[in-house]
What does this fold into?
Amino acid sequence: MDSALYVDGNPYEIWRAMREIGPVHHQVAATGSEFWAVVGHEASHRVLTEWKTFTSTRGTTLREDDNSAPYPGAGKMPVLADPPRHTELRRAVARLFTPRAVEKLAALAQQVAGSLLSDLRRRGGGDFVTDVAAKFPLAVQAELLGIPPEDIALISDATSRALDAAEDEAVGGHHDVMMYYLNALGTRRDGPGKDLLGALLSARAGGLPLTDEEIVLTCDNIVVAASQTARHSASGSLLALLERPAVWAALRNGQISIDSAIEELLRWTAPVTHVMRTAVTDTELAGTQIHAGDALAVWTASANRDRTVFKDPDDLVLDRHPNPHLTLGAGMHFCLGAALVRVMLRALLENLISADTSLALTNPAGWNSTWVVNGLNSLPVTVTPT
Ligand code: HEM
It folds into this structure.
């Protein structure tokens, strides 16, 4: 939980050293936050999938002080709910995000990726993070999320603050996203429509509508996740490819399937650094005694480099198969946007591959240096015709 450890990206060397000692470690952060760091793949998978033992209702992000304090929003948005409410909340929106539903956004994703990259090319280059990766996810998903073009900048700013490591900043960001949807709710009750709010307004659970609080909190859950994660996988992927010209050339020459490349780039970038759970009963995890009430943080990026599961884990192997990475979680809370992330990354990669341009780094990439969602905040590139 020390942001300084993330200045050069995720702290893989520290996690490797920890994994060599064992998969589960007791930690007390400088701020007083106490938790078990789960760094091995098998133990991480168990924590993510055994929801009866490891609840999400005490929060899924570590807190600076007391991880066991009651969590606002618990049980009222998918990521913070256990069954049966989790099943009902997720069912209310799931049809918007099925592989078939998001395939309808593929053409838009291709068009947005093409247009952002042509702008970059026209200028001879720029910052891939601010000019492309940060704009791309919301430009593709805005209509689905019920955000008109003139509000995209406001939501982009609020969702970015919502994932700030400083709690005050994060609370302010979530507040602004929720107020936005609360206001929208007032104007939408009579004509629900086909977007996120429409799905939530027409949903029924046990014959009853969802409460306004659940609707607004679920919008917050989805909109923050939708806008602030894929950007890091997109820019982290480009950096990884530019740093490995032979791998990049093999992908551009069509020697590697885009689908397997996407999975490996997801394993590689892992922007959601950790996912927290709280034990509801005493249990043993990989030989370690865990007590009811203990917080556990699954470090997904560390699990993705576990050499007992991934051969040559520190190499980018675009045709890696199988690739059971935990970047998108596992079990019942498995990322709702998984199919959409793949559609977006495919559009971006295909456009990067087909463009008759050469991209090169002009300055070292800059990392956003946080332990909540880590990724690049700048990736200066030149773009020249080939
Ligand atoms: C590369 C991009 C993404 C990454 C790395 C990512 C990662 C994750 C992870 C690790 C989880 C599991 C959380 C947990 O178990 O507590 C999750 C859940 C979730 N993600 Fe994503 N996500 C991404 C993109 C998206 C997008 C584009 C959406 C938009 C719909 C989205 C919506 C959600 C939602 C709503 C959940 C909660 C699901 C539930 O609790 O049932 N994510 N994501």
The mean pLDDT is 95. The first strand starts at residue 24 and ends at 28.
